[in-house]
Amino acid sequence: MNTFGELIQAVKDDLSIPLSTSIFSDDLIKRAINRAYIKAGNLYRWSTLEDALTTSTIAGQDYYDFPSNWQPDSAWKLKVDGVDYGDPLVFKDFLYEVENGVPSGADYLWSTQWKRFFIYPTPTKNGINNIEIWGFKTVGKLVNDNDKTIFSDNLKECNEAIVLEAEAILTKKEEKEQIGQFRSLEAKQILSIAYSKQLTNQNKYLRTVSFWSVPDFFK
Predict the structure, then answer these.
(1) Based on the domain organization, do 18 and 70 belong to the same domain?
(2) What is the pLDDT of residues 136-154, one digit of tens each?
(3) What is the residue range of 147's domain?
(4) How far apart are CA 76 and CA 78, in angstroms?
(5) Residue 168 belongs to what H/E stretch?
(6) Angle at the Cα of 51 (from 46 to 53), degrees rounded to 5?
(7) Residue 186, exposed/middle/buried by CB under 10 A (0-12, 13-18, 19+)?
(8) pTM for the predicted model, two decimal places
(9) 120 and 74 in a common domain
């Protein structure tokens, strides 16, 4: 069950929908699947949605737009002129630092605010592809029968969750509330387990050595 067409057929099979029906039209089923897909894609920060952008500094400008297909506040890493700016600050903390003369003494600061990111110090010259930023895309709409989800190649069980959530949306429309709630809960459990597996795999590559050398003051 990898393609949009297969997801549509799975929903029809599970709900025993005949080839032609006035209750669940093909367009209605497709819309339900896309609604479910958006829910699943935005529930967690999936590795398959990680993305990177290269853009250029503009003299006197300290904020820049995310790509239109990125999730809000999803940027997690920034480099300008090859310098790693570290972890982003909460936006209000960024403003406090900049407005109060950077009391922390940091050389470089950055923050995200919805679908923009801010950097300090403000660039003094125009650059050429000297900003590198990493973030997370949103899922795209499924249109053609052969379209795949972000889960189709590596997390196929999540496609089952999309089918269940789409069925929950459709059965709710038919006022079978309890059936829909059970399907929706099962869908969330599948997605939660899949994301936990992703985190487990990512943790294999986390640093095991501290960045800092800390003396033992109490030996």
Answers:
(1) no
(2) 999 999 999 999 999 999 9
(3) 1-25+140-167+177-192
(4) 7
(5) helix 157-173
(6) 160
(7) middle
(8) 0.82
(9) yes
